[in-house]
């Protein structure tokens, strides 16, 4: 087989032309495409790394915030428990105080009711005693009892307190009418004279006295000198006793 240098040279030229064509029209664009792809991959890797760093930062922030939230929740729970315990304690204290106050009011009410009951019983007993005493004195009323009361009247008149003595003298000094002596039973001349002398001595002047009978006095007498009234009779004592019994 004969070697053809012309063909060999042409083949070499063809190969060189092919290499030039491949280099300028295929290899360079492919390299550029590969470089662009490598650049995008680098950018994406950098972005992914940045995103991973941001994600880690966010995760750390979330974990830190979660831990803070847990602490805040625990603190809020303890604070709420303390408030509830305090409210429960205050509520129990208020309830105990309210119960104590209610018990005090109930005791006071019971005491008042007992006192009212005792007062009613005492008043009824006093009224009964008054009625019985009045009935008894009505039966005991007699001229002798009136005479005895007149004697006591004269003794009391002689020992009259200074205030009442002065009041009697003032009433007697301004007297423009007769003095009046009412007695449950008729007084004899001696008794009238004794009463007149005693009143004159106490009043400091002679008095014109009118004597009358008043059975409503039951026993005893009543002396009226102007605005001054001196009672020494059973009816006045019973009236006083009745007033006291009504206020028991």
TrEMBL record:
What residue ranges carry the coiled-coil annotation? 34-86
Quote the subcellular location field of this record. Answer: Cell membrane; Endomembrane system
Please provide, alphabetically and separated by semicolons, the GO molecular function terms listed in this UniProt record: proton-transporting ATP synthase activity, rotational mechanism; proton-transporting ATPase activity, rotational mechanism
Pfam families recorded for this chain? ATP-synt_B, OSCP
Q: What does this protein do?
A: Component of the F(0) channel, it forms part of the peripheral stalk, linking F(1) to F(0). The b'-subunit is a diverged and duplicated form of b found in plants and photosynthetic bacteria. F(1)F(0) ATP synthase produces ATP from ADP in the presence of a proton or sodium gradient. F-type ATPases consist of two structural domains, F(1) containing the extramembraneous catalytic core and F(0) containing the membrane proton channel, linked together by a central stalk and a peripheral stalk. During catalysis, ATP synthesis in the catalytic domain of F(1) is coupled via a rotary mechanism of the central stalk subunits to proton translocation.
Q: Which family does the record assign?
A: Belongs to the ATPase B chain family.
- Assembly description: F-type ATPases have 2 components, F(1) - the catalytic core - and F(0) - the membrane proton channel. F(1) has five subunits: alpha(3), beta(3), gamma(1), delta(1), epsilon(1). F(0) has three main subunits: a(1), b(2) and c(10-14). The alpha and beta chains form an alternating ring which encloses part of the gamma chain. F(1) is attached to F(0) by a central stalk formed by the gamma and epsilon chains, while a peripheral stalk is formed by the delta and b chains.
- Protein name per UniProt: ATP synthase subunit b
> Which species is listed as the source?
Candidatus Methylospira mobilis
């Amino acid at each position: 087989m004969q070697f053809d240098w012309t063909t060999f040279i042409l083949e070499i030229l063809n190969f060189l032309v092919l290499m030039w064509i491949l280099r300028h029209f295929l290899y360079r664009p492919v390299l550029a495409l590969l470089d662009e792809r490598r650049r995008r991959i680098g950018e994406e890797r950098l972005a992914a790394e940045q995103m991973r760093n941001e994600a880690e930062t966010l995760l750390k922030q979330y974990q830190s915030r979660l831990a803070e939230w847990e602490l805040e929740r625990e603190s809020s729970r303890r604070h709420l428990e303390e408030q509830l315990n305090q409210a429960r304690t205050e509520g129990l204290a208020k309830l105990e105080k309210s119960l104590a106050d209610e018990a005090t009011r109930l005791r006071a009410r019971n005491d008042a009711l007992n006192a009212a009951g005792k007062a009613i019983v005492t008043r009824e007993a006093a009224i009964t005693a008054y009625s019985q005493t009045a009935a008894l004195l009505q039966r005991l009323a007699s001229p002798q009892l009136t005479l005895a009361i007149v004697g006591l009247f004269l003794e009391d008149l002689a020992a009259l307190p200074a205030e009442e003595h002065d009041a009697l003298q003032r009433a007697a000094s301004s007297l423009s009418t007769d003095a009046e002596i009412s007695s449950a039973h008729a007084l004899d001349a001696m008794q009238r004279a004794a009463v007149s002398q005693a009143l004159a001595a106490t009043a400091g002047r002679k008095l014109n006295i009118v004597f009358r009978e008043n059975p409503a006095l039951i026993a005893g007498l009543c002396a009226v000198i102007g605005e001054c009234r001196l009672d020494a009779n059973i009816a006045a004592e019973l009236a006083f006793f009745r007033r006291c019994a009504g206020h028991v």
